[in-house]
TrEMBL record:
Residues 226-293 form the GHMP kinase C-terminal domain. It comes from Polystyrenella longa. Belongs to the GHMP kinase family. IspE subfamily. Residues 91-166 form the GHMP kinase N-terminal domain. ATP binds at P119, V120, Q121, A122, G123, L124, G125, G126, G127, S128, S129. The keyword Transcription does not apply. This is 4-diphosphocytidyl-2-C-methyl-D-erythritol kinase. Keywords: ATP-binding, Isoprene biosynthesis, Kinase, Nucleotide-binding, Transferase. Its EC number is 2.7.1.148. Pathway: Isoprenoid biosynthesis; isopentenyl diphosphate biosynthesis via DXP pathway; isopentenyl diphosphate from 1-deoxy-D-xylulose 5-phosphate: step 3/6. Catalyzes the phosphorylation of the position 2 hydroxy group of 4-diphosphocytidyl-2C-methyl-D-erythritol. It is an enzyme of class 2 (transferase). One of its GO terms (biological process) is terpenoid biosynthetic process.
Protein backbone atom coordinates (compact mmCIF):
# COMPACT_ATOMS: atom_id res chain seq x y z
CA UNK A 1 0.00 0.00 0.00
CA UNK A 2 1.45 3.37 -0.92
CA UNK A 3 0.20 6.92 -0.41
CA UNK A 4 0.39 9.46 -3.22
CA UNK A 5 2.11 12.68 -2.12
CA UNK A 6 -1.17 14.64 -2.38
CA UNK A 7 -2.39 12.68 0.67
CA UNK A 8 -5.72 12.03 -1.06
CA UNK A 9 -4.97 8.83 -2.91
CA UNK A 10 -3.69 5.38 -2.10
CA UNK A 11 -2.21 2.75 -4.42
CA UNK A 12 -2.70 -0.90 -3.43
CA UNK A 13 -1.48 -4.23 -4.81
CA UNK A 14 -3.99 -7.05 -4.64
CA UNK A 15 -2.06 -10.34 -5.03
CA UNK A 16 -3.41 -13.56 -6.55
CA UNK A 17 -3.31 -16.81 -4.53
CA UNK A 18 -2.69 -20.48 -5.13
CA UNK A 19 -4.05 -23.41 -3.16
CA UNK A 20 -1.17 -25.84 -2.59
CA UNK A 21 -3.50 -28.16 -0.67
CA UNK A 22 -7.30 -28.22 -0.64
CA UNK A 23 -9.22 -30.90 1.22
CA UNK A 24 -13.02 -30.76 1.45
CA UNK A 25 -14.03 -32.09 4.88
CA UNK A 26 -17.77 -32.16 4.24
CA UNK A 27 -20.92 -30.24 3.37
CA UNK A 28 -22.43 -27.96 6.03
CA UNK A 29 -26.06 -27.15 6.81
CA UNK A 30 -25.61 -23.59 5.46
CA UNK A 31 -24.72 -24.98 2.00
CA UNK A 32 -20.99 -24.19 2.34
CA UNK A 33 -18.29 -26.85 2.70
CA UNK A 34 -15.78 -27.17 5.52
CA UNK A 35 -12.28 -26.95 4.13
CA UNK A 36 -8.68 -27.38 5.11
CA UNK A 37 -6.64 -25.50 2.55
CA UNK A 38 -3.15 -24.03 2.27
CA UNK A 39 -3.04 -20.75 0.38
CA UNK A 40 -0.01 -18.76 -0.74
CA UNK A 41 0.09 -15.24 -2.18
CA UNK A 42 1.64 -14.65 -5.59
CA UNK A 43 3.58 -11.81 -7.12
CA UNK A 44 0.91 -11.64 -9.88
CA UNK A 45 -1.42 -8.87 -8.73
CA UNK A 46 -4.16 -6.42 -9.64
CA UNK A 47 -3.50 -2.75 -8.90
CA UNK A 48 -6.09 -0.45 -7.35
CA UNK A 49 -5.88 3.31 -6.91
CA UNK A 50 -8.27 4.93 -4.43
CA UNK A 51 -9.07 8.65 -4.43
CA UNK A 52 -11.50 10.76 -2.52
CA UNK A 53 -14.43 12.09 -4.56
CA UNK A 54 -13.91 15.56 -5.96
CA UNK A 55 -16.92 17.43 -4.53
CA UNK A 56 -16.53 20.25 -7.10
CA UNK A 57 -17.51 17.78 -9.85
CA UNK A 58 -21.20 17.92 -8.92
CA UNK A 59 -21.34 14.25 -7.87
CA UNK A 60 -22.77 12.66 -4.76
CA UNK A 61 -20.03 12.82 -2.12
CA UNK A 62 -20.73 9.25 -0.98
CA UNK A 63 -20.73 7.64 -4.43
CA UNK A 64 -18.43 4.72 -5.20
CA UNK A 65 -17.09 5.07 -8.74
CA UNK A 66 -15.21 2.12 -10.24
CA UNK A 67 -13.20 2.14 -13.49
CA UNK A 68 -11.52 -1.00 -14.76
CA UNK A 69 -9.09 -1.93 -17.49
CA UNK A 70 -7.30 -5.17 -18.32
CA UNK A 71 -3.53 -5.41 -18.50
CA UNK A 72 -1.03 -8.15 -19.42
CA UNK A 73 0.13 -10.86 -18.85
CA UNK A 74 -2.73 -13.30 -19.43
CA UNK A 75 -4.75 -11.34 -21.89
CA UNK A 76 -2.26 -10.03 -24.43
CA UNK A 77 -2.14 -13.25 -26.43
CA UNK A 78 -5.78 -14.04 -25.90
CA UNK A 79 -7.67 -15.51 -28.83
CA UNK A 80 -10.95 -14.26 -27.37
CA UNK A 81 -11.46 -11.05 -25.41
CA UNK A 82 -11.51 -11.51 -21.65
CA UNK A 83 -14.99 -11.23 -20.12
CA UNK A 84 -16.07 -7.69 -19.22
CA UNK A 85 -15.69 -6.82 -15.54
CA UNK A 86 -18.88 -5.34 -14.08
CA UNK A 87 -18.28 -1.95 -12.44
CA UNK A 88 -21.71 -1.70 -10.78
CA UNK A 89 -22.94 -2.77 -7.34
CA UNK A 90 -22.41 -6.44 -8.25
CA UNK A 91 -18.61 -6.00 -8.20
CA UNK A 92 -17.02 -7.21 -4.95
CA UNK A 93 -14.95 -3.99 -4.77
CA UNK A 94 -18.11 -1.87 -4.70
CA UNK A 95 -19.69 -4.31 -2.22
CA UNK A 96 -16.65 -3.96 0.07
CA UNK A 97 -16.82 -0.15 -0.07
CA UNK A 98 -20.58 -0.17 0.61
CA UNK A 99 -20.16 -2.59 3.54
CA UNK A 100 -17.56 -0.27 5.10
CA UNK A 101 -19.85 2.76 4.61
CA UNK A 102 -22.84 0.95 6.12
CA UNK A 103 -20.90 -0.46 9.08
CA UNK A 104 -19.16 2.79 10.02
CA UNK A 105 -21.76 5.33 8.90
CA UNK A 106 -19.05 7.18 6.97
CA UNK A 107 -20.47 9.57 4.35
CA UNK A 108 -17.35 9.80 2.18
CA UNK A 109 -17.18 8.07 -1.20
CA UNK A 110 -14.30 7.00 -3.40
CA UNK A 111 -13.11 6.83 -6.97
CA UNK A 112 -11.40 3.49 -7.61
CA UNK A 113 -9.29 2.56 -10.63
CA UNK A 114 -8.69 -1.15 -11.07
CA UNK A 115 -6.00 -2.56 -13.35
CA UNK A 116 -6.97 -6.21 -13.78
CA UNK A 117 -4.23 -8.77 -14.36
CA UNK A 118 -5.66 -11.75 -12.47
CA UNK A 119 -8.14 -13.70 -14.62
CA UNK A 120 -11.67 -14.23 -13.32
CA UNK A 121 -13.21 -17.66 -12.59
CA UNK A 122 -9.68 -18.99 -12.32
CA UNK A 123 -9.37 -20.02 -8.65
CA UNK A 124 -6.71 -17.34 -8.20
CA UNK A 125 -8.79 -15.25 -5.77
CA UNK A 126 -8.61 -12.04 -7.82
CA UNK A 127 -12.05 -10.72 -6.86
CA UNK A 128 -11.50 -11.61 -3.18
CA UNK A 129 -8.09 -9.94 -3.14
CA UNK A 130 -9.49 -6.77 -4.75
CA UNK A 131 -12.22 -6.68 -2.07
CA UNK A 132 -9.67 -7.09 0.75
CA UNK A 133 -7.47 -4.34 -0.72
CA UNK A 134 -10.55 -2.10 -0.84
CA UNK A 135 -11.35 -2.65 2.86
CA UNK A 136 -7.74 -1.95 3.89
CA UNK A 137 -7.26 1.10 1.63
CA UNK A 138 -10.60 2.77 2.38
CA UNK A 139 -10.03 2.19 6.10
CA UNK A 140 -6.98 4.43 5.65
CA UNK A 141 -8.40 6.88 3.11
CA UNK A 142 -11.48 7.52 5.25
CA UNK A 143 -9.47 7.59 8.53
CA UNK A 144 -11.56 4.86 10.17
CA UNK A 145 -8.86 3.16 12.28
CA UNK A 146 -10.52 -0.25 12.11
CA UNK A 147 -8.24 -3.02 13.38
CA UNK A 148 -7.15 -5.94 11.19
CA UNK A 149 -9.45 -8.22 13.23
CA UNK A 150 -12.43 -5.92 12.56
CA UNK A 151 -11.60 -5.76 8.84
CA UNK A 152 -11.32 -9.57 8.75
CA UNK A 153 -14.84 -9.89 10.17
CA UNK A 154 -16.17 -7.64 7.41
CA UNK A 155 -14.09 -9.56 4.87
CA UNK A 156 -15.74 -12.85 5.87
CA UNK A 157 -19.14 -11.33 5.04
CA UNK A 158 -17.93 -10.67 1.49
CA UNK A 159 -16.56 -14.14 0.71
CA UNK A 160 -14.77 -17.16 2.13
CA UNK A 161 -11.34 -16.25 0.65
CA UNK A 162 -11.38 -12.53 1.48
CA UNK A 163 -9.97 -12.77 5.08
CA UNK A 164 -6.81 -14.51 3.78
CA UNK A 165 -6.01 -11.36 1.78
CA UNK A 166 -6.53 -9.09 4.82
CA UNK A 167 -3.92 -11.15 6.67
CA UNK A 168 -0.38 -10.03 5.89
CA UNK A 169 1.16 -13.52 5.82
CA UNK A 170 2.47 -15.02 2.57
CA UNK A 171 1.04 -18.45 3.43
CA UNK A 172 -1.73 -19.70 5.70
CA UNK A 173 -3.84 -22.74 6.48
CA UNK A 174 -7.45 -21.67 6.03
CA UNK A 175 -10.21 -23.65 7.73
CA UNK A 176 -13.96 -23.37 8.31
CA UNK A 177 -15.37 -22.27 4.96
CA UNK A 178 -11.95 -20.67 4.36
CA UNK A 179 -12.23 -17.69 6.70
CA UNK A 180 -10.36 -19.07 9.75
CA UNK A 181 -6.72 -18.16 9.06
CA UNK A 182 -3.59 -19.64 10.65
CA UNK A 183 -0.41 -18.14 9.15
CA UNK A 184 2.31 -20.68 8.33
CA UNK A 185 5.94 -20.41 7.22
CA UNK A 186 7.05 -20.86 3.64
CA UNK A 187 10.77 -20.49 3.07
CA UNK A 188 12.47 -19.75 -0.21
CA UNK A 189 10.79 -18.97 -3.47
CA UNK A 190 10.16 -20.75 -6.76
CA UNK A 191 8.84 -19.86 -10.21
CA UNK A 192 5.26 -20.84 -10.96
CA UNK A 193 3.67 -21.18 -14.41
CA UNK A 194 -0.02 -20.33 -14.45
CA UNK A 195 -2.22 -21.41 -17.34
CA UNK A 196 -5.96 -21.10 -17.77
CA UNK A 197 -8.13 -22.89 -20.31
CA UNK A 198 -10.39 -20.73 -22.50
CA UNK A 199 -13.32 -21.06 -20.11
CA UNK A 200 -13.59 -20.54 -16.37
CA UNK A 201 -15.48 -22.54 -13.75
CA UNK A 202 -18.14 -21.45 -11.28
CA UNK A 203 -17.28 -22.31 -7.66
CA UNK A 204 -20.79 -23.52 -6.61
CA UNK A 205 -20.94 -25.83 -9.66
CA UNK A 206 -17.59 -27.42 -8.81
CA UNK A 207 -18.59 -27.97 -5.16
CA UNK A 208 -21.87 -29.50 -6.35
CA UNK A 209 -19.97 -31.91 -8.57
CA UNK A 210 -17.67 -32.76 -5.64
CA UNK A 211 -20.78 -33.69 -3.58
CA UNK A 212 -22.03 -35.96 -6.37
CA UNK A 213 -18.69 -37.77 -6.61
CA UNK A 214 -17.58 -37.78 -2.97
CA UNK A 215 -17.05 -41.06 -1.21
CA UNK A 216 -16.15 -41.81 2.41
CA UNK A 217 -12.40 -41.49 1.96
CA UNK A 218 -10.00 -40.60 4.77
CA UNK A 219 -9.05 -36.92 4.68
CA UNK A 220 -5.60 -36.08 3.41
CA UNK A 221 -3.36 -34.59 6.12
CA UNK A 222 -1.83 -31.17 5.54
CA UNK A 223 1.09 -31.72 7.95
CA UNK A 224 3.70 -33.16 5.51
CA UNK A 225 3.18 -30.18 3.18
CA UNK A 226 3.54 -27.69 6.06
CA UNK A 227 6.79 -29.36 7.07
CA UNK A 228 8.12 -29.18 3.50
CA UNK A 229 7.10 -25.51 3.22
CA UNK A 230 8.87 -24.50 6.41
CA UNK A 231 12.03 -26.40 5.47
CA UNK A 232 12.18 -24.68 2.06
CA UNK A 233 12.31 -27.94 0.11
CA UNK A 234 10.64 -26.96 -3.15
CA UNK A 235 10.66 -30.48 -4.61
CA UNK A 236 8.92 -31.88 -1.53
CA UNK A 237 6.34 -29.06 -1.64
CA UNK A 238 5.75 -29.85 -5.32
CA UNK A 239 5.34 -33.60 -4.64
CA UNK A 240 2.74 -32.98 -1.93
CA UNK A 241 0.36 -30.75 -3.93
CA UNK A 242 -3.26 -31.85 -3.54
CA UNK A 243 -6.69 -30.54 -4.56
CA UNK A 244 -9.89 -32.53 -3.89
CA UNK A 245 -11.78 -30.31 -6.35
CA UNK A 246 -9.60 -31.15 -9.34
CA UNK A 247 -11.36 -34.37 -10.42
CA UNK A 248 -14.85 -32.79 -10.22
CA UNK A 249 -13.56 -29.73 -12.12
CA UNK A 250 -11.97 -31.90 -14.84
CA UNK A 251 -15.33 -33.62 -15.33
CA UNK A 252 -16.97 -30.23 -15.89
CA UNK A 253 -14.37 -28.76 -18.23
CA UNK A 254 -12.78 -30.88 -20.96
CA UNK A 255 -10.21 -28.20 -21.80
CA UNK A 256 -9.01 -28.24 -18.20
CA UNK A 257 -8.41 -31.99 -18.43
CA UNK A 258 -6.44 -31.45 -21.65
CA UNK A 259 -4.40 -28.70 -20.04
CA UNK A 260 -3.52 -30.89 -17.02
CA UNK A 261 -2.38 -33.70 -19.37
CA UNK A 262 -0.26 -31.22 -21.30
CA UNK A 263 1.31 -29.94 -18.06
CA UNK A 264 2.10 -33.52 -17.02
CA UNK A 265 4.12 -34.07 -20.19
CA UNK A 266 6.65 -31.46 -19.07
CA UNK A 267 7.64 -33.55 -16.03
CA UNK A 268 7.66 -30.56 -13.71
CA UNK A 269 8.24 -31.16 -9.98
CA UNK A 270 4.50 -30.56 -9.35
CA UNK A 271 1.30 -29.62 -11.20
CA UNK A 272 -2.17 -28.85 -9.85
CA UNK A 273 -5.41 -26.94 -10.39
CA UNK A 274 -5.85 -24.02 -7.96
CA UNK A 275 -9.03 -23.50 -5.87
CA UNK A 276 -12.15 -24.48 -7.77
CA UNK A 277 -10.36 -23.84 -11.07
CA UNK A 278 -10.04 -23.42 -13.89
CA UNK A 279 -6.43 -22.15 -13.67
CA UNK A 280 -3.67 -24.77 -13.34
CA UNK A 281 -0.12 -24.25 -12.18
CA UNK A 282 3.24 -25.92 -12.35
CA UNK A 283 6.05 -25.47 -9.85
CA UNK A 284 9.36 -25.12 -11.71
CA UNK A 285 12.96 -25.81 -10.76
CA UNK A 286 14.31 -22.66 -12.39
CA UNK A 287 13.12 -19.49 -13.99
CA UNK A 288 14.66 -20.67 -17.25
CA UNK A 289 12.57 -23.86 -17.20
CA UNK A 290 9.45 -21.80 -16.45
CA UNK A 291 10.06 -19.43 -19.34
CA UNK A 292 10.68 -22.18 -21.90
CA UNK A 293 7.65 -24.25 -20.83
CA UNK A 294 5.41 -21.18 -20.77
CA UNK A 295 6.41 -20.46 -24.40
CA UNK A 296 5.33 -23.99 -25.36
CA UNK A 297 2.06 -23.63 -23.46
CA UNK A 298 1.31 -20.31 -25.16
CA UNK A 299 1.15 -22.10 -28.50
CA UNK A 300 -1.73 -24.24 -27.18
CA UNK A 301 -4.90 -22.52 -28.41
CA UNK A 302 -6.77 -22.67 -25.13
CA UNK A 303 -4.17 -21.36 -22.71
CA UNK A 304 -3.68 -18.03 -21.05
CA UNK A 305 -0.22 -18.28 -19.56
CA UNK A 306 2.08 -16.33 -17.29
CA UNK A 307 5.08 -16.94 -15.05
CA UNK A 308 5.12 -15.59 -11.54
CA UNK A 309 6.58 -16.32 -8.09
CA UNK A 310 5.48 -16.25 -4.48
CA UNK A 311 4.78 -12.83 -3.02
CA UNK A 312 6.94 -12.50 0.06
CA UNK A 313 6.40 -9.31 2.02
CA UNK A 314 10.09 -9.07 2.79
CA UNK A 315 11.84 -8.07 -0.41
CA UNK A 316 14.94 -10.25 0.01
CA UNK A 317 12.85 -13.39 -0.53
CA UNK A 318 11.58 -12.21 -3.91
CA UNK A 319 14.62 -13.10 -5.93
CA UNK A 320 12.71 -14.24 -9.01
CA UNK A 321 11.40 -11.63 -11.38
CA UNK A 322 7.93 -12.20 -12.82
CA UNK A 323 7.78 -12.02 -16.59
CA UNK A 324 4.76 -9.77 -16.76
CA UNK A 325 6.28 -6.75 -15.04
O1 LIG B 1 -17.70 -17.57 -0.08
P1 LIG B 1 -17.88 -17.40 -1.54
O2 LIG B 1 -18.87 -16.30 -1.86
O3 LIG B 1 -16.61 -17.21 -2.27
O4 LIG B 1 -18.50 -18.75 -2.06
C1 LIG B 1 -19.08 -18.88 -3.34
C2 LIG B 1 -19.81 -20.20 -3.40
O5 LIG B 1 -18.88 -21.28 -3.38
C3 LIG B 1 -20.75 -20.46 -2.25
O6 LIG B 1 -22.03 -19.91 -2.48
C4 LIG B 1 -20.77 -21.98 -2.19
O7 LIG B 1 -21.65 -22.49 -3.17
C5 LIG B 1 -19.37 -22.35 -2.60
N1 LIG B 1 -18.49 -22.57 -1.45
C6 LIG B 1 -18.67 -23.69 -0.67
N2 LIG B 1 -17.85 -23.91 0.42
C7 LIG B 1 -16.86 -23.06 0.70
C8 LIG B 1 -16.64 -21.90 -0.09
C9 LIG B 1 -17.48 -21.70 -1.16
O8 LIG B 1 -19.56 -24.51 -0.91
N3 LIG B 1 -16.05 -23.30 1.76
Amino acid sequence: MCHWPDGQSILARAPAKLNLHLEVLGRRDDGFHDLETVMVKLDLHDTLQFRTINTDANVDESSIQLDCRYSSPFFQSDVSSPPPIPVDESNLIVKAARLLQQTTGVTQGAHIELVKRIPVQAGLGGGSSDAAATLVALNQLWGLNYSTAELSQLAAQLGSDVPFFIDSSTAAVCRGRGEIITPVTIRGNFPVILAQPGSGLSTPTVFKKWSELSSQKACRSVEPLLEAMSSGKTNSVARLLFNALQIPAEQLNAQLKQLISLFQKFALPGTLMTGSGSCCFGICQSFRQATSISSLLRTAPFSRVCVTTLHHNRMHHGYYRSTYQ
